[in-house]
Amino acid sequence: MDGDQDSPFLRPLERRRLSTLINIWKDHWITICVVLIFGGIWFSTTFNVDMPKLYLQQIYVPALDLSENPTAAAAAAPVNPTLFFDIRFENPMADHSNSYGDGEIAFFYGPGRSLRVANYTLGGFNLDAGKTAYRRGLVEGRGVPWDGALGAAAIFGVEVAVKVRFGYWFWYSNKRPLRVGGDVEVGPSGRKVRSEDVPLTSAANMLRGRRFSALTFVAVSLLLVSVV
After folding, report:
1. Cα angle at 177 between 171 and 180, to 5 degrees?
2. Where are the alpha helices (DSSP H) in 48-88?
3. Cβ(60)–Cβ(84) below 8 Å
4. What are phi and psi of 161, to 5 degrees?
C-alpha cells in the first residue's frame, strides 16, 4: 500500500487523497465493515421478493353431484351447470405487501386444458405481509360434455392470470405478471376426489422474484479488510 502512495504516476494531490482514505480506513475499518455487513443484510431483506402462492381450495360442480341430481346420469342433461370455486392467495413474505390488479380466472375441461368452459373476472385487492386472502365465486360452465363427465371422474383445469405489485417501505414496485394453473379431478360427488388443496403453479414464475444477496456486501467488506 505504501508503494502505491509513493508511485511516481500519482500526482501530489492524488497521493494526499489516497493517503487520507487509507488513514480513514485504518482508523475505522471495523465500523465500515459493520455498516457494510448490516447494510447488505438490510438491502437483501428489503428488496428480495417471493411470488405469491395460490391454491385451489374448493371446487364444486353441482351437475356432477349424483346425490343431488340422481336422474342427471340417465337424462344426460345437467340441472345446474354452475361451477363454485374457492381460491386461496398467500403472501409468503413477512416484510412486503402485495397489490393485485384486476385479473382473470379461467376454467377448462379435460386434460391439457384445451377446452375453456368458463371465465371469471377477478377484482383487484391488497394483501398485507404474511397474510392470506380467499376469493370465492361461481361461474356458468358452457360447452362441457356433461354426458361423458357424469358418473365418472372428470378433469377440470384452473388458471389465474393477474398482475401483482410488491410493497416496499413507502412505494410499490412495477406490475409483474403472475400466471399460474393446476388440474383437479372431480368425482361423482361434484367435489375434488382428493381432499388436499391443489397448488396453482407455473415454472415461469419461479424466477420472477428479484433477489439481491447480502453475501456480495460481506465479500466486499472482507476484501477491504484483507487489503490492509
Report:
1. 130
2. 72-75
3. yes
4. -125, 120
Backbone angles phi, psi at 47, to 5 degrees: -105, 0
Place of cell 424466477: 207
Q: How far apart are CA 183 and CA 198, in angstroms?
A: 8
Residue 164, C-alpha cell as written in the block:
401483482
pLDDT value, residue 157: 94
From CA 104, how far away is CA 81, in angstroms rounded?
Answer: 20
- Model confidence pLDDT, tens digit, residues 88-123: 999 998 888 899 999 999 999 988 888 999 999 999
Which grid cell is 223? 476484501
Q: Which amino acid makes up residue 30?
A: I
DSSP string covering 77-139, please?
--S--EEEEEEEEE---SS--EEE--EEEEEEESGGG-EEEEEEEEPPEEE-TT-EEEEEEEE
Taking only Cα atoms into account, the Rg of the chain, rounded to an integer number of angstroms, comes to 29
CA 11 and chain centroid, separation: 54
* Cell numbers found for residue 118: 368458463
Rounded CA gap, 70 and 47, in Å? 55
Q: Which alpha helices (H) appear in the chain, and where do they start and end?
A: 2-5, 12-47, 72-75, 146-149, 215-227
Hey, what amino acid is at 32? I
Q: What is the rounded distance in angstroms from the CA atom of residue 115 to the CA atom of residue 15?
A: 74
Q: How far is CA 197 from the centre of its chain?
A: 17
| CB-CB neighbours of 148 under 10 Å | 12
